[in-house]
Write a structure and sequence with these properties.
It contains nine helices and 13 strands. With 333 residues, it is α+β, with helices and mostly antiparallel strands. Helix 3 crosses helix 6 and helix 4 crosses helix 6. It binds 2-oxoglutaric acid and fe (ii) ion.
């Protein structure tokens, strides 16, 4: 069955949107976005030579928000610009060229170009197309799902991944130390060097009714941690204290989400953040999240250091692939 891409729908001369994209009232961003004074979402300068201060701010942000942005992270601007350039060029290719790397339904793999991953409640659709492919470790990379066009796509993604690995290590060791553990403990609990990085590109075409539609609907990431670069079009919102807050676009920042696996490992000390995205009337929004997750057969459960008689395990220990299956199919964990 041919899947209709949102980008193709958006290219039609529409002044309304098809009804399946109109979210139910309790989800519509036009009425559910908070408009009062916005609390400061943490923006953390990780080049601060006072390493213990950096660890402390990261830890506090991960406990309080499950979310923060980092600046001065050492990934050269040029490397990020290239990642964005090649991704944008891919999405601007004619539709049939993009379909060359489309997802294979029923293959059990996430990889490829696609339009909808999860069955949504109330049969509603999300205003977004995407591309997924593994970038790390190299044994998990399948170039069949990497665009051949533009030709520099591969190099740009490999270069970004190489730099990103350093940031992943920095984040996981800071989050470990911040909970009083040795720096390597959280990464070890996620498979150590077998930790997997999955690149996603979200492409949110301009939308005639951004007040009624959503890009990605409210969710927490099932990864351990997600590191994202957005383009300059704002749209990310995070949920805190019962409100949806707009996240401000900070040039050259990396956006960090705590995902479900860190919530589980830390037995709830860290929170996986609820987030969603809005879309824009005139401009295409794009984002490049990289999901960092344990390998599928790794059993993840609360670390013994966080389980006591007064504070028993809040989550079951299970293989990551089983967690993923339940999450995608909306089954209880
Ligand atoms: O586009 C964004 O900023 C967020 C996307 C997201 O949350 C996701 O793809 O899981
Ligand atoms: Fe997400």
């Amino acid at each position: 069955m041919e899947v209709e891409r949102v980008q193709a729908i958006a290219s039609l001369p529409l002044d309304a949107i098809p009804s399946e994209f109109i979210r139910s009232e309790h989800e519509q961003p036009g009425t559910t976005t908070f408009h009062g004074p916005i609390p400061e979402v943490p923006v953390i300068d990780i080049s601060d030579p006072d390493r213990s201060r950096v660890v402390q701010t990261i830890t506090e942000a991960a406990i309080e928000w499950g979310f923060f942005q980092v600046v001065n992270h050492d990934i050269p601007e040029k490397v990020i610009q290239e990642l964005q350039r090649v991704g944008k060029e891919f999405f601007e290719l004619p539709q049939e060229e993009k379909e060359a790397v489309s997802m294979v339904p029923g293959s059990g793999s996430f990889e490829g170009y696609g339009t909808k991953l999860q069955k949504e409640l109330e049969g509603k659709k999300a205003w977004v197309d995407f591309l997924f492919h593994n970038v790390w470790p190299s044994s998990r990379v399948n170039y069949r799902f990497w665009p051949k066009n533009p030709p520099s796509y591969k190099k740009a993604n490999e270069e970004y991944t190489k730099h990103l690995l350093g940031v992943v290590d920095h984040m996981l060791s800071s989050l470990s130390i911040g909970l009083g553990l040795d720096g390597h403990v959280l990464k070890d609990g996620l498979g150590g060097e077998a930790l997997e990085l999955l690149m996603k590109i979200n492409y949110y075409p301009p939308c005639p009714r951004p007040d009624l539609a959503l890009g990605v609907v409210a969710h927490t990431d099932m990864s351990a941690i997600t590191i994202l670069v957005p383009n300059e079009v704002p749209g990310l919102q995070v949920f805190k204290d019962d409100h949806w807050f707009d996240v401000k676009y900070v040039p050259n920042a990396l956006v960090i989400h705590i995902g479900d696996q860190l919530q589980i490992l830390s037995n709830g000390r860290y929170k996986s953040v609820w987030h969603r995205t809005t879309v824009n009337k005139e401009k295409a929004r794009m984002s490049w999240p990289v999901f960092c997750s344990p390998p599928g057969d790794m059993v993840v459960g609360p670390l013994p250091q966080f389980v006591t008689e007064e504070n028993p395990a809040k989550y079951k220990a299970k293989m990551y692939k089983d967690y993923e299956y339940c999450k995608i199919n909306k089954l209880p964990q």
